[in-house]
Amino acid sequence: MNNPEIKLFNEIIQFLESEREIYGPFSLPDSSVEPEQALNTDTVNKPDTSISANSSASEWLTLHSEGKPLSLLEKLDACKSLEELKLFCGQANELRTDLNGTRLVFGVGNPNADLMLIGEAPGEQEDIQGEPFVGAAGQLLNKILEAINFKREDVYIANILKHRPPGNRNPNPDERQRSLPYLLRQIDLIRPKIILCLGKISGTTLLNKDDSLGNLRGVFYPFRGAELTVTYHPAALLRNPQWKRPVWEDVQRVRKRYDELGGKP
Ligand code: URA
C-alpha cells in the first residue's frame, strides 16, 4: 500500500465519494479493475464524445460541457462529422430566419468532395425538399457542372444560410453572420481543395470583403486550406444571359485548377 500511485488512486476515490455526497450519484470505476490497470493512461479508453443519431442535443451538451457553458465555437469543434454537425444545426434557432416553420437545408453531396459550391440561401423548392439547388437555378447549376465534367454527386453543395428567408429576399447581414460559424465548420469537415461561391452574397460573406462580383471573380483566394473563387449566381444568369460567357470562363478555370491541385477524377 505504499505505492504512491495506489495512494493517489485511493485519494481520488475518497475525493469522488465526498463529491458524490454533495452533488449526488455518479458512476465510480469498476472496483474489479486493478488500480495499476485503472491508472495506466495508455490503456484508458477515451470517452466517445461524438453525437450519435440517437443521442439528444441536451445529452450531448451535458457530455461536452461538464457543467460549464461551452462557447459556440467549442460546440462546433466538438462536431466531428457532417452527421453530428447536421444534428447540431437542426437544434440551432440562430440559423432560422424570420420565416416560421422552415426546414433545415444543411447541404448535399460527397462529404469528401474536392470541390464545394456555396450559394446564398434555400428558396421555396429547397425548403420543401430539404436540399440546396433543386429549383430552376439548381437545374442550371447541374448543367454547368456537367459542362465541366462533374456530376452533382461528385461535389458538395451548401448555402450561406441553412433556412429559407421570407419571400426569397437576400440574406441580411445579421443572418449571414449568425450562420457563418456553422458553414465554416462544414467547410473544415469537408476540406475541399476548391470552393466556388455562387453569387455576390456568398463571395462577399466568405471573403469578408464588400466588392462587386465583377471585381471579385477571376481570382483564387487562399481560404481555410482551400482556394476560393467567385462567379455569378445561376439565378442571376437566368435573368442575365450576357453573363454566360464570364461564367463559362470562371468554371473552366475551376476545372483546370481542380485538375492541377490533384482533385479526385
Ligand atoms: N439559390 C441559392 O442560393 N441556393 C439554393 O439552394 C437555391 C437557390
* CATH fold call of the largest domain: Uracil-DNA Glycosylase, subunit E
Q: Please state roughly what percent of the residues sit in beta strands, choosing from under 5%, 5-15%, 15-25%, 25-35%, 35-45% or over 45%.
A: 5-15%
Let me know the average pLDDT.
85
Q: How many helical elements? A: 12
Q: What topology, given as strand order, has the largest sheet?
A: 1-3-2-4-6-5
The helix content, as a percent range, equals: 40-55%
How many strand segments?
A: 6
At the fourth CATH level, what is the homologous superfamily of the largest domain? Answer: Uracil-DNA glycosylase-like domain
Sum up the overall morphology in one term. Answer: globular
Rounded radius of gyration (Å): 24 Å
Low-confidence stretches: 21-50
Report the top-level CATH class of the largest domain: Alpha Beta
Bound molecules: uracil
Gap between N and C termini, in Å?
63 Å
Number of domains: 3
* H and E string: HHHHHEEHHEHEHHEEHH
Decide which structural class fits the backbone.
alpha/beta
Query: What is the name of the CATH architecture of the largest domain?
Result: 3-Layer(aba) Sandwich
Biggest sheet statistics: 6 strands, mixed
Give an account of the 3D structure.
By secondary structure, this protein is of the alpha/beta class. It has three domains: 1-45, no CATH class; 55-91, no CATH class; 101-260, Uracil-DNA glycosylase-like domain (Uracil-DNA Glycosylase, subunit E, 3-Layer(aba) Sandwich), CATH 3.40.470.10. Helices cover 45% and strands 9% of the residues. The chain has a six-stranded mixed sheet, with helices on both faces. The termini are far apart. The relative contact order is 0.11. Residues 21-50 have low confidence and may be disordered. Bound molecules: uracil (URA). Uracil (URA) binds at residues 119-123, 126, 132-133, 135, 137, 159, 235.
